[in-house]
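Narrative of activities, Objective 1.

The group set out to show that a structural description can be obtained from nothing but a protein's sequence at a throughput compatible with the screening campaign. Below is one input-output pair from the validation batch, recorded exactly as produced.
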Amino acid sequence: MLSESPTLAMSARAKELKAQGKAVLDFSAGEPDFRPPAAVTAAVTEYLQTRPVHYAPVPGMPALRDAAAAEFARYHGRAITRGEILVSCGAKHSLANLFMVTLSPGDEVVIPAPYWVSYADMVRLGDGVPVIVPTRREDGWRLQPDALAAALTERTRFIILGNPTNPTGAGYPAGLLRQLGEVMARVAPRCWLLVDDIYRRLVYGGFEHVSAFATLADVTDQIVIADGVSKSYSMTGYRIGFLLAPANVVAAASRLQGHVTSGAATPSQIAALAALTDPSCEAAVRDMHAAFTRRREFVLAGLQALPGLDVVAPDGAFYLFCDVSRHLGPGTQFADDIAFATWLLEQKLVGTVPGTAFGAPGHLRLSYAAADESLRDGLQRLGEALAGLPPPRDA
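Output recorded for this entry:
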């Protein structure tokens, strides 16, 4: 049975409370709070005002597939053709398509935890078996080579790496990525590496995102990339994602998509095309990145100053993943992180997501994709909430 997305559920409850007139500060949503670049809005407006809106080709408009191929060729340093690109209704759709056309019953997919909430359920949709591999805070929440080697079997079909990942913001530097690739080639040479690059342009603190293709030259024919415009261009509602995969995989996923959704919405594809091709969009991306950089530093410092919280500085995305376990269990007010997050939302009007949703009980995820004033007020409200609790347990 598929579970409800906990992030969407918490966000929906926060919206319900806001609709009731409650002054909710919601840090649960995984989407930028900025408008898309002006050129994106202008392109969609011009299109809608001057022509009818028809179905788009199932795998995506040729111009958009070509633009995505050009962008990925530039970034990954290799030739990429239109046939290797599938345009879907968001990167989530891209991943679901991939698993449904590549997995056979019993195929295993290695997923490092904490993990994005939908990975495991999408694997199950494809009749696969999620193999959850815990990571450690002291390792920066990054999968380590020995843990990967222990998880691989002859049934392993994919290894998933978010780079950076949701919810921790952990990224994979070139050296570690290369070590993981060597383990994959040695222990499970038939499996594929799936890299979720949706946050690749949102990295901070000197972390350098590296292309899996450029880093793992020996296994380039076994790498699949999920990407899109949702996060980097603040276009979550447009629902455009890209799958970069071998042409035969893209063709199979396109056939599936043709029976499930058909092509992604035509106006959304026009918007994505503008994002990838209009040079003016880069200034908007830089401005958003600068704002996220500032917010990251502010919220990180604020959380580190609060009693009983432990948080690792993220390499990217726009989340902070807090260990709140000292406020849970015997002698505290809360049995678990779900109870804590529920109390924060219902009683203190602060929206977060419990770590259990990401395979990491005892944690909370907070998004800093919110206005500066909201972040200031949120830290103050969180501090007041913690001050009213029993002292945190000893570490």
